């Protein structure tokens, strides 16, 4: 029998079961979206001018094509309520309009200060300067519109994952307030980092995303014979993307959130 697993999200349903297990299940499901988005982006070379050069024909606009595209997409997505969802955080805060439709009532799970935790500016810089050149081929083939669409998919999937750190931190705080409160009061970020770290879980995440990259990125053949493996993105790079950027950024969000948790 086939079991279809619903995409899960802790704040999407009205019946919120906040537990570390349910949050981790959501992070596991998000891995699929992230790995697919990286595979999609890797179809294209770096295409640096799309995000580095200001080539807008509108003289009053100095954005790169990618920045222009992300700003415009965020505006339309805000109008249909994307950023009413506490799981979503915009990259460009200055131009976020209100939803023009009745908004969904998301359960208040997080501390009200949660909305002030947004590290997307940092993510933007890391993504274009370090992460992208790490997993895509160098080169410029000029198809910037399709490249920008793939970059938006990667950025949004990664942003959602790292800002999920707010939910992870909330559940960890609720499970052990007496452990966390002294470190929060003394703003001891090192102690907070230690409390929230589970090295074995991190190792498992890195192994699992490598396996997912192998599975989702393999060439699917109908005829057996040529068994050589040719992956769309090197699976070990996906594991390193998690180890070097995604997990550390998630932990930074957890710390940022916890520091505001008693305000
Ligand atoms: O699962 C957790 O406890 C998390 O905080 C998430 C996460 C991760 O980013 O995957 C981050 C820190 C922990 O050390 C383990 C895993």
UniProtKB/TrEMBL annotation:
Q: Which organism is it from?
A: Eruca vesicaria subsp. sativa (Garden rocket)
Where mainly found? cytoplasm
**Protein location:** Cytoplasm
Task: Kindly state a single biological-process term from the GO annotations of this entry.
Answer: prephenate(2-) biosynthetic process
Gene Ontology cellular-component annotations: cytoplasm
Tell me, what is one Gene Ontology molecular-function annotation carried by this entry?
A: chorismate mutase activity
Q: In which pathway does it act?
A: Metabolic intermediate biosynthesis; prephenate biosynthesis; prephenate from chorismate: step 1/1
PANTHER family of this UniProt entry? Answer: CHORISMATE MUTASE (PTHR21145:SF12)
Q: Where is the Chorismate mutase domain?
A: 144-254
Q: Does Phosphoprotein appear among the keywords? A: no
E.C. numbers? 5.4.99.5
Question: According to the UniProt record, what class of enzyme is this?
Answer: isomerase
Pfam annotation, one family: CM_2
Q: What's in the keyword line of the UniProt record? A: Amino-acid biosynthesis, Aromatic amino acid biosynthesis, Cytoplasm, Isomerase
Q: What is this protein called?
A: Chorismate mutase
Return the InterPro entries for the record: Chorismate_II_sf (IPR036263), Chorismate_mutase_AroQ_euk (IPR008238), CM_AroQ_sf_eucaryotic (IPR037039), CM_II_prokaryot (IPR002701)
* Coiled coil keyword on record: no
Residues spanning the signal sequence: none
Reactions that this protein is recorded to catalyse: chorismate = prephenate
